[in-house]
Design goal:
By secondary structure, the chain is of the alpha+beta class. It contains 12 helices and 23 strands. Strands 12, 15, 18, 19, 22 and 23 form a 6-stranded antiparallel sheet that branches. A 5-stranded parallel sheet has the order 3-2-1-4-5, sandwiched between helices. Strand 7 and strand 8 form a beta hairpin. Helix 7 runs antiparallel to helix 8. The chain binds adenosine monophosphate and glycine (GLY).
Length: about 425
């Protein structure tokens, strides 16, 4: 089997690594891929958002499946286009990817089907939005862009002034372009956050092992929101009782609602959950694997990912048993100094062998490449998040110790990482 994966981050490296473990796979391709991915897959310099370019590439390579991993091509309809061209795919069509592509859509869906989420109102008019904030007079106030905004479209305003500025930046100044032309203002929720990724073929939903992301840039959840600075799986706060509650009140109702709306969701659905004192609530849906959640979830998958991909495509996920290891996994992200704001790239990475893995032989961590490129046999930094150093072990503590030992053996100028990944879970 030949598989083309679209994307070029740590998540895609983890997906391609899982695919490479399948005895059914003969050849892996990636577009655009990255330095680490190029050790497993032949990479082609086509942007993940270039629907025409990827479709042309697929026609040239003729893969058995195209795995579309990132949000933007999914929301833009890459799967629809590839299916029209006769290719089998992993990932939802645009009419289902809208669960992530429009918060106005996803909030309305949850309201209509009674799926627990924060109370909210939507606005296109700044004066009305500001009047609503004044009337509610409850802070923090949560203000969200309707559309995709590289993870930056959510503002937690601590007071009226911040809330007013957020509304103005979105609705009047066009800071987020079309994504911010409609906004959601919602109730502030409290409680631990849990990520649950789930395989679904549109009818059946099979949740994966839960995980915990660390979104803020610095230790003790200080600093700006990032794409995620590290993850652990499973998330110990997600107890069997919570799992049962989420299955009954959130996962199944969401899949059924999408089917009923004529928008069956096929692929990986990301549930961003808050375990509030009043029960689990949805903070957000994403239409794809999480990054860096995938880096800790897929290493625990024992079933062949290719079998799952085929079962989803053929809509027979109900028949397939998806098995998980009972070990723990931890991923520590090494980022470029300054990320998520300004940072430099092109720095040589020390401590990696020719496969992009740790040379220190006392660590068996796996290094997922997020933002690297291979240049004349040397790995260079090429993004904000550079590496996701990941270990699997019998306990979370051991997995974290192994990952941190490996992190210490890898060097690049101004490297930054959090030192408290998984601490809350120990
Ligand atoms: P998102 O980009 O939608 O994942 O939101 C970024 C982060 O903002 C989430 O991981 C939460 O920590 C926080 N957040 C989003 N919505 C709410 C809410 N209604 N209440 C409290 N925190 C929220
Ligand atoms: N780690 C958060 C996300 O993938 O959206």
């Amino acid at each position: 089997m030949k598989i083309l994966t679209v994307g070029g981050g740590g998540r895609e490296h983890a997906i391609i690594t899982a695919l490479s473990r399948s005895p059914q796979v003969d050849k892996l391709y990636a577009a655009p891929g990255n330095g680490g991915i190029s050790t497993l897959a032949e990479c082609f310099p086509v942007k993940a958002t270039d629907i025409e370019g990827i479709t042309e590439l697929a026609k040239k390579l003729n893969p058995d499946y195209v795995f579309v991993a990132p949000d933007d091509p999914l929301v833009l309809g890459m799967v629809d286009k590839l299916n029209e061209a006769g290719f089998k795919t992993f990932g939802p069509k645009a009419n289902a990817a809208i669960l992530e592509g429009s918060k106005v859509f996803s909030k309305a869906l949850m309201k209509k089907y009674g799926i627990p989420t924060a109370e909210y109102e939507t606005f296109t008019d700044a004066d009305k939005a500001i009047a609503y904030i004044k009337e509610k007079n409850s802070y923090p106030a949560v203000i969200k862009c309707d559309g995709l905004a590289l993870g930056k479209g959510v503002i937690i305003a601590e007071d009226f002034e911040q809330a007013e500025n957020a509304v103005k930046s979105m609705l009047l100044d066009g800071k987020f372009g079309k994504s911010g032309s409609e906004i959601v203002i919602e109730e502030y929720l409290t409680g631990p956050e849990v990520t649950v990724l789930a395989f679904t073929d549109g009818k059946t939903v099979k949740p994966m092992i839960s995980s915990m992301d660390h979104k803020r840039a610095y230790d003790n959840d200080k600093g700006l929101n990032t794409g995620g600075m590290g993850t652990i799986a499973p998330n110990p706060l997600y107890t069997p009782e919570k799992q049962a509650e989420c299955m009954e009140k959130i996962f199944l109702p969401t899949i059924k609602a999408m089917e009923k709306e004529g928008r069956p969701f096929k692929g990986c659905l990301y549930f961003g959950l808050m375990l509030t004192p009043k029960g689990a609530k949805v903070i957000e849906y994403n239409c794809r694997f999480g990054d860096p959640e995938t880096q800790v979830v897929l290493p625990l998958l024992e079933t062949d990912l290719v079998d799952i991909m085929e079962a989803i495509w053929e809509e027979r996920l109900a028949e397939l048993e998806v098995k998980w290891s009972d070990k723990a996994c931890a991923c520590v992200v090494m980022a470029s100094g300054g990320y998520p704001e300004k940072y430099e790239t092109g720095k040589e990475i020390g401590g990696l062998d020719e496969k992009g893995q740790c040379v220190a032989d006392d660590t068996d961590a796996y290094v997922y490449h997020a933002g690297t490129k291979l240049d004349n046999g040397k790995f260079l930094t090429a993004g904000g998040r550079v590496l996701g150093v990941t270990s699997t072990a019998d306990t979370l503590k051991e997995a974290l110790d192994k990952s941190y030992a490996a992190v210490k053996s890898i060097t690049f100028e101004k490297a930054h990482y959090r030192t408290d990944i998984g601490k809350k879970a120990l």
